[in-house]
């Protein structure tokens, strides 16, 4: 075992430890679902699109204000059962453990961070790209998906949260892999969030604080826009079934990242200036009126 993952010494691969015996026979309630969701330990995050599903279901349960051991509604119960049925498939995912960062023949090492958000969740993932003399190696290093707050929040703000998460992950990976001078590329499909990051304006408190952290952890010039269909964090923020994850082999990264030289997809999308300016700091104009009492000036100096 390595950090909760199964280490196959022969193939030098890591896989997720799925123990279905602990799940079978349990009544599915809010309490047991929370236990099951936290039972799958995946520090890297290659199963994150699948493990996001129960978290989204739990949020729905919280909104319904169900008690911890209360039976779940039929529609929610069916979703949980469907997710549980496919859970053992995750044990078949194997990812290479070794990175070979110090091997000979390396021309360039870069990190590529994808950020995305939807109404119910936001996410980010970091891929390592190693360019050798004859080929290119890419690998998922870390991924995280988080459920959106219960309080309603706009999609652009969620996109900005995903960008904040992406910079944190990149900073962590950069430090853990001891790559102080590595070139990092940040990719988001939100023109609004990108404008907030790149423009120096008097933003409101929420945007100002997030942009400040993003700018502290990354270079503004490293941020680029990527089309939504090419954003590899899309499936991470939407969630998917275990079968879909196996079919897509999401953890292997985008095919265009293996090209030499790498050709980042571009788009001609125009930013929505109205949406961008909604987060400008509000100015409050206060008009004051001063009333001057009229009186005879000589009364101040002479008594009657």
Structure annotation, total helices: 9
Shape call? flat
* SSE class: alpha/beta
Straight-line distance between termini: 102 Å
Q: Numbering strands along the chain, what is their spatial order in the largest sheet?
A: 6-5-4-7-8
Helix amount: 25-40%
InterPro entries: Haem_peroxidase_sf, Retrotrans_Pao
Pfam families: Peptidase_A17
Protein name: Integrase catalytic domain-containing protein
GO molecular function: heme binding; peroxidase activity
Task: Give the gist of this structure.
Helices cover 33% and strands 18% of the residues.
Describe this structure in words.
The chain has 9 helices and 8 strands. It is α/β, with parallel strands linked by helices and 304 residues long. Strands 6-5-4-7-8 form a 5-stranded mixed sheet. A hairpin with a 4-residue loop joins strand 1 and strand 2. The longest helix has 22 residues. This is Integrase catalytic domain-containing protein. It comes from Trichonephila inaurata madagascariensis.
Observed structural traits:
304 residues; alpha/beta; 5-stranded mixed sheet; 9 helices; 33% helix; flat
Annotate the secondary structure layout.
Blueprint: E1 6-8, E2 13-15, H1 30-39, H2 48-64, H3 74-86, E3 94-96, E4 106-117, E5 121-132, E6 136-147, H4 155-176, E7 183-188, H5 191-198, H6 205-217, E8 223-225, H7 234-238, H8 242-248, H9 273-277
Parallel strand pairs: 4-7, 7-8
Antiparallel strand pairs: 1-2, 2-3, 4-5, 5-6
Protein name: Integrase catalytic domain-containing protein
Pfam family, one: Peptidase_A17
GO molecular function, one term: heme binding
């Amino acid at each position: 075992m390595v950090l909760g993952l199964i280490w196959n010494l022969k193939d030098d691969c890591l896989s997720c430890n799925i123990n279905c015996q602990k799940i079978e026979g349990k009544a599915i309630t809010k309490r047991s679902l929370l236990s099951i969701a936290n039972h799958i330990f995946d520090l890297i995050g290659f199963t994150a699109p699948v493990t996001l599903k129960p978290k989204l279901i739990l949020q729905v349960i919280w909104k319904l204000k169900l008690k911890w051991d209360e039976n779940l509604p039929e529609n929610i119960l069916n979703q949980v059962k469907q997710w549980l049925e496919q859970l053992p498939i995750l044990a078949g995912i194997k990812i290479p453990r070794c990175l070979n960062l110090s091997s000979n023949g390396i021309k360039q090492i870069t990190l590529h961070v994808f950020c995305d958000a939807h109404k119910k969740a936001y996410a980010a993932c970091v891929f390592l790209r190693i360019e050798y003399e004859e080929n290119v190696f890419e690998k998922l290093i870390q991924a995280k998906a988080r459920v959106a707050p219960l309080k309603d929040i706009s999609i652009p703000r969620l996109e900005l949260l995903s960008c904040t998460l992406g910079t944190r992950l990149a900073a962590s990976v950069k430090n853990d892999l001891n790559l102080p001078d590595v070139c990092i590329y940040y990719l988001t499909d939100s023109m609004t969030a990108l404008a907030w990051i790149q423009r120096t304006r008097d933003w409101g408190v929420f945007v100002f604080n997030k942009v400040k952290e993003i700018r502290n952890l990354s270079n503004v010039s490293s941020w680029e826009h990527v089309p939504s269909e090419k954003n590899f964090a899309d499936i991470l923020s939407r969630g998917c079934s275990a079968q879909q994850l196996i079919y897509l082999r999401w953890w292997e990264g985008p095919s265009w990242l293996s090209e030499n030289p790498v050709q980042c997809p571009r788009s001609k999308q125009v930013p929505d200036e109205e949406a961008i300016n909604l987060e400008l700091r509000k100015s409050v104009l206060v008009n004051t009126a001063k009333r001057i009492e009229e009186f005879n000036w000589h009364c101040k100096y002479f008594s009657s």
